[in-house]
Amino acid sequence: MVRAARLAGLPIAYAGRRAAGMGKRVLGRPAADVDLEIQLRTAQHIFEVLGELKGCAAKLGQIMAVYELALPPELAEPYRAALSRLHDAAPPMLPATVHTAMAASMGDDWRELFREFDDRRAASATIGQVHRAVWHDGRGVAVKVMYPGARAALLADLDQLRRMSTLATVFAPHADVRALADQLAESVRAELDFAAEAEFQRTFAAAYANDPDFRVPEVVAQRGDVLITEWLDGIPLHRIIESGAAEERSRAGMLALRFVLSAGPRAGLIYCDPHPGNFRILPDGRLGVVDFGACAPWPPPDFEAMVSDLGDAVFNGGPAELDTAIRQHGFADDEVSFDAAVLSDQLAPYVDLVRLESARVDREWLRRRVLHTMNPRLSNVWRQLTMPASCTPFARALVTLLGLLSQLDTAGPMREEILRWSPELTAAFTRYRTRGPEPAAADPHAPADLAAARERRAARTAAAARPRRFGVSRG
Q1: Among 86-95, 189-198, 448-457, whose mean pLDDT is lowest?
Q2: Where are the domains of the chain?
Q3: Which CATH superfamily is 95-148+193-297 part of?
Q4: What pTM value is reported for the model?
Q5: What SS3 string covers the chain?
């Protein structure tokens, strides 16, 4: 009841802020300032509530964590404090509770399957906890056990979150929030199915078997709400983010980028949850990947055609072509008006990740992107757009991946990695390159300065638009 009351209180508080905002506008406060205040206070309230809950509320908080990057450090601290509780808020299960949960799924004689079983929690997950053990054949294993009652709590959370989905208009007022909420709810509900997670992990383990860059642990056994996999020793990416050298952080980021982009072509699945806790650097240098509960079939419907059309629009077209592609693939209704030229400018930093040979993604880069996207001004072009529900799993993976890359301060040849796994984007970029080379960075071995590259490109465009001395305009 307390969980439901706290979640239900979010939209009530939001309605109260909007009502108070109307009064402030009447008294002469600028509408943009009022909207920004409502947005910040609502977001802070959301993070505070989600930070005190577990289950899908905590999962939603992880997905939304990128939002705190949109704020100046002094404003982001309350968000960061609430989000940090998402990793450790769930108290560990007492040994007696663990034993009961193991017996419920594995049978009363479950201990006979193990040579050793550590009752202490080795790690916590959103819906359970992980124990270290030794399987009867001598292999070290990780035993993931669902919290008792977690299934009922998560399903109740999902109902509440779907009912309060209109809060998403704080961030994207033109989005089809019901369809997006339904898709997100379905993806979270799927994480309750340990049998499906085991199959996803088996698929990935087979696809990346003997890979020189990655290690996916084998599934040892799965019964009910218990999943047993091979144990991976390694350095969690949280520690690489905190204390790794620049070269070490960039290498980890590039490996994470490669894994997420290659998952679809190699495994036929989207890896939707690339947050730091699911990766570790192994002693042999490979990237270990765990937790395959959040996966989705690859590709989403009409995805290749969408990438091809949008790629051609941003590389080889103009605002008119971008407008057509955006509407054709369901990112804007025919009745909605948006400025395609402004959108093209907003997309430029993302396009530069492909346009330039080497790039860097850090917290400041992502903070600027999120600030543009979340700007509450009515003139913000992102507020006029929506997203097809079928793209939700890919968008979740992409947003979480960009958050990870920014935390690692990743620098490297991202263009090569992106094009390697997208033939549609490669075709569009190849047509673009035939029109002339992009200026190289001053130091070909250094990460590209994306802002400087955009300024050079803008200068060339302005110069091309100026009339020639003999009075004839170009193009």
Answers
A1: 448-457
A2: 2-89+151-189, 95-148+193-297, 303-465
A3: Transferase(Phosphotransferase) domain 1 (1.10.510.10)
A4: 0.78
A5: CHHHHHHHHHHHHHHHHHHHHHHHHHCCCCHHHHHHHHHHHHHHHHHHHHHHCCCHHHHHHHHHHHHHHHCCHHHHHHHHHHHHHHHHCCCCCCHHHHHHHHHHHHCCCHHHHEEEEEEEEEEECCCEEEEEEEECCCCEEEEEEECCCHHHHHHHHHHHHHHCHHHHHHCCCCCCHHHHHHHHHHHHHHCCCHHHHHHHHHHHHHHCCCCCCEECCCEEEEECCEEEEECCCCEEHHHHHHHCCHHHHHHHHHHHHHHHHHHHHHHCEEECCCCHHHEEECCCCCEEECCCCCEEECCCCCHHHHHHHHHHHHHHCCHHHHHHHHHHCCCCCCCCCCCHHHHHHHHHHHHHHHHCCCEEECHHHHHHHHHHHHCCCCCCHHHHCCCCHHHHHHHHHHHHHHHHHHHHCEEECHHHHHHHCCHHHHHHHHHHHCCCCCCCCCCCCCCCCHHHHHHHHHHHHHHHHCCCCCCCCCC
